[in-house]
Every structure is written in C-alpha cells, then in structure tokens.
Amino acid sequence: MVRICYFINKVSGVRCWLLFACLCIAACSKKPTNVSKVEALPEIYPDYTGVTIPVGLAPLDFAMADEDFTTIDVEVKGSKAGSLHANGAYADFDIDAWHQLLEQNKGGVLTFTVCAEKNGQWLQYRDFIVQVSADALEEWGVTYRRIPPSYELYSQMGLYQRNLGTFEETELFQNTRVDGNCVNCHTTNRTNPDQYVFHVRGEHGATVISGEILMAKNDTLGGSMVYPYWHPGGRYCAFSTNKTSQMFHSNMKNKRIEVYDSSSDVFVYDTQTHTILRDTLVMKVFWAENTPAFSPDGKWLYFTTAKRQVYPTDYDKEMYSLCRVSFNEQTGRLGELVDTLINTLETGKSVSWPRPSYDGRYVMYTQTDYGYFSIWHPEADLWLLDLETGETRSIDEVNSALSDSFHNWNTNSSWFLFTSRSEDGLYTRLYFSHFDKQTGKATKPFLLPQRNPRHYYQQSMYSYNTPDFASRVLDAHPRETATGLLGKNRVATQTKDPKGN
Predict the structure, then answer these.
(1) pTM of the model
(2) What pLDDT shows up at residue 419?
(3) What distance in Å separates the CA atoms of residue 451 and residue 68, rounded to the nearest whole number?
(4) Coil, helix or strand for 131?
(5) Alpha-helical runs (H) found in 204-357
(6) What is the rounded distance in angstroms from the CA atom of residue 138 to the CA atom of residue 499?
(7) Residue 45: in which H helix or E strand, if any?
(8) Which end of the chain, N or C, is less surrounded by CB atoms within 10 Å?
(9) What's residue 306's pLDDT?
(10) What does DSSP assign to residue 184?
C-alpha cells in the first residue's frame, strides 16, 4: 500500500510543495497474476459470505482463514452503483468509501470477488454476496462488558461503548478505577444512554443509576440489585436479587462450571422515591424468580420462575418457566394473576433472559437443559415466542452447536445482537442479525467488525458480555463515577409491599 503525503512549507513568502511516498513494505500491493479459478467460495475470517448488513455499518474487513495465504485482493461492486478495491495482508476498506458504497446500494447487493496468493500461486474464488438491508439500524453503537476468563478473581474488566459505524471503542467504566472490584452489566432504557444502571460488587459495592450511587444491598431485601430492565416510562426499573453460587465439574468435557441460585426474587424499584416495591407474586418462598423484563408498552412484567431444588446436588433439576404479570405504572403495583407463557413441565427445558421486541410482537429468550446461567451451557440456544400466535421456535438461522445467549433488540425491532461461543467454545463474541418482521425469520449472523479482525480476535483474551444497542454516544465520566464509588456516600433504599408496609 502506498500512501502519498503532501506538505506545505512557506519560506520567504514562497509556497513550496514537497511530495514524498511512504512505502509500507509489509503492506505493499501485489497484483494477481497467472490466476487459477476455484469453483468454491473463499474461506474467509470472519465468515461474511451471504450476510445481511445495515447502512452505516463499519467496513467488513476480512482475511483468508488459512494463514498461509500472504496476500488477498478484493473487488466489491454494488448492484446499484459504486465499487471498492482492497489489496494486502487482509481486506482493509476505507471507512468513508465503504459508507458511501452502502448508501448507494441500500436495499441492494454487494458482490465480492476474492483473489488470494498462497505459495506464489494466485487463486480466484467464486463470488459471494452481501445484502444491504433497506431496514435502518437506527443505532449509534453498542455497549458491552469485556471480561477475561476467570472464576474467583475479578481481574481486569470494563464496560465499553463502540461506534458501529467505525472501529472506535471508548470506556464507560473500568474496574481498575475501584481497586479491581467486579463491575456488572450496563443496562440502558430502550438503548437511551440518558438512563442507565450498573452494579459494582466488592469493597466499594453500589448500584449506579444514571449517576446516582445507591447502597449495594438493602438489609430488608437481603441482597443486591442485579439483572436490571427498565420500564419504558423511565421511573421504574425491575431487578432480581440473587444468592448465587458456583461449582466445578470434574468429569464433563463440555462443561466446566455451574452457576446456580440458592434463592432469588424479582422486584420493581421506584427511582423517584428510592423504594423497592416487594410483591409476593414474584417473591414466593419455595420458588426462584429471575431475569425480569418489561413489555414495550409497560403494561406487563415478564420474568422466569423455577421451583427451588436441593443445592448443589439437584442443580440440574432447576428449570425455569416464562411468566408475566400486569403492571400499573400509576400505582407501581403488579396485578393479581400470573400468566405462564412457556411451561417447563411441557417443554422439559429451562427459559432465561426474556427480551420482548420493541414492537410488542415477539419475546426472544434463551433455552437450556436446566438452570439460567446460559454462557456455561453449550446447548444454550435462542428461541422466539410469537405473542400473537403463541407459537415458539428455535432460531435455527443463528444458533450454533455452542452457547448462544445474551441477546437484545434494536429500537425498530429489525435487528438483534447476541453473544456466542461458536468459534472456539471458550470466548463469547458479539454477533448481529437482521430480523424480517413479516416472516419472523433471521438472517445469517455476522461478527462485530474489527480492523484487522483475525489479529484482533486471535490476540483478544476477553469475552463480550451483556451487550445492548446504544442510540447515541454516552458522555461518560468514569473518573467522577470512580470518585463517588470510592467515597462513603450512598443513597439508602426502602422497601414497601403492595399494602404500603
């Protein structure tokens, strides 16, 4: 690759143009010669063949999956207009030119012609296509936690936001700012960064809600506020409180660890009065309620529930059903009847992480053989419940043989993201898929684009965790947040049951 740099120098009122070429030997251009054609699609990393992407997405940079290939030459042509060319160790597309090409071909197709050199021989593969969806993404980016492999020690982890149109990632909060305490999932209200919540465990423990720092635990509640989900009105946020334990398998090759709750309950928190609204409907003595989520109209609270078992011996008998109960935004109270939408007695499986689509039509959830901590379950798959027909199905279009979980919708319900261990069974990566609201079908998922992706993902020792879309960049102030967490001031919470006690 040759980059031409121009410098302007004024000497005694005379403008002189100095032109020089900066030659980057490692990335120098090699044109395909004596090309042999191959009647097969190229094996590339990431596998972007046949995916559907939105306008505005960062370039789909890729390399040959076989590292013995030294050079790749890629021509991209739009079905409506425009073209791009990349040549080097990997396909490195110019961001501005890429965005222009997507805009020109919205609702159309990009055709990729790939030639690659291996051992001095150039091979040209069968063309592959990428669909450019007519459905807008309508999101600035994504948020997620990046966490290293660990069981007992928190190590270095952080909450981050990533611009989906570029490769820029910025910090929301890192645990190194609070002496390495665990930093839990960051959750916004329908992708709106103005309302967010995350939890910190350890010596400086607290629940941070839109900058306000709450006490980590409520003595009456008996636990922390975890697994949050905002009510669309913004005043309320649903949580669960869990007594979580873990154990390790000694003779199971495909499973290393089990995470289970000896008890858990669901409650609603009133951000205006700092009140935890308790209700026995979702806090039953012999049942474990978990993973709450409000419906997009705010009239329903979804949650999962399982009959408590003898732990840890009967951990694999813990199976969650999907339920919902009505919610009154004016009073902050739940209804009197609980509907069971998916019954584990009928399916023999366990449901977790319900996420309603924002148009109100579907609920996406994770299904496992038992339990709810799905990232440790290789059988974990994404499922879809149609609220109009009552039908439910596995989303086979995106599911893999390894754990698929932690999903969220974009605001127009035409796209969703999720994490998967499909690559190696060890690290969860972030994937995206287009969702056809007419047919209820999803497209082949694509990996979060990175500059020089093979190098990035091979070098990364972090998993992507609890991702969500973000409608715009959050003006984060991690240093100020850390100062508050390192201090002693905390906002106390109170509890209240439906009778006002």
Answers:
(1) 0.91
(2) 97
(3) 20
(4) strand
(5) 344-347
(6) 42
(7) strand 44-45
(8) C
(9) 96
(10) -
Q: Identify the residue whose tokens are 């645990």.
A: 175
CA dist., res. 259 & res. 236, Å (int) = 28
In 3D, which of 139, 148, 298 has the Cα closest to residue 232? 298
List phi, psi (to 5°) of 458: -70, -35
Question: Using CA atoms in the order 449, 454, 455, 457, what is the torsion angle rounded to 10 degrees?
Answer: 70
Tell me which DSSP letter residue 164 carries.
Answer: T
* 459 secondary structure, DSSP code: H
Task: Extract the tokens encoding 250.
Answer: 């000694």
How do residues 441-482 score in pLDDT, each as one tens digit? 999 999 999 999 999 999 998 999 999 999 999 998 999 999
CA–CA separation, 241 and 450 (whole Å) = 36
Does residue 462 contact residue 430 with C-beta atoms inside 8 Å? no
Q: Count the alpha carbons within 13 Å of 28 in the hemisphere toward its beta carbon.
A: 6
What distance in Å separates the CA atoms of residue 112 and residue 94, rounded to the nearest whole number? 15
Cα–Cα distance measured from residue 340 to residue 14, given in angstroms and rounded to the nearest whole number: 82
Among 97, 98, 123, 90, residue whose Cα is nearest residue 1: 90
- Pairing relation of β-strands 141-147 and 441-442? unpaired
CA distance 69 to 62: 13
Cis check for the bond before 449: say yes or no (omega within 30 of 0).
no
CB atoms near residue 485 (< 10 Å):
23
Residue 311: the pLDDT is: 85
pLDDT < 50 regions, the chain: 1-28
pLDDT for residue 252 = 62
From CA 302, how far away is CA 355, in angstroms rounded? 9
Task: Look at residue 319 in the predicted model and tell me its pLDDT.
Answer: 96
What is the predicted pLDDT for the residue at 27? 41
Helix, strand, coil percent values for the chain (each to nearest 5): 10, 50, 45
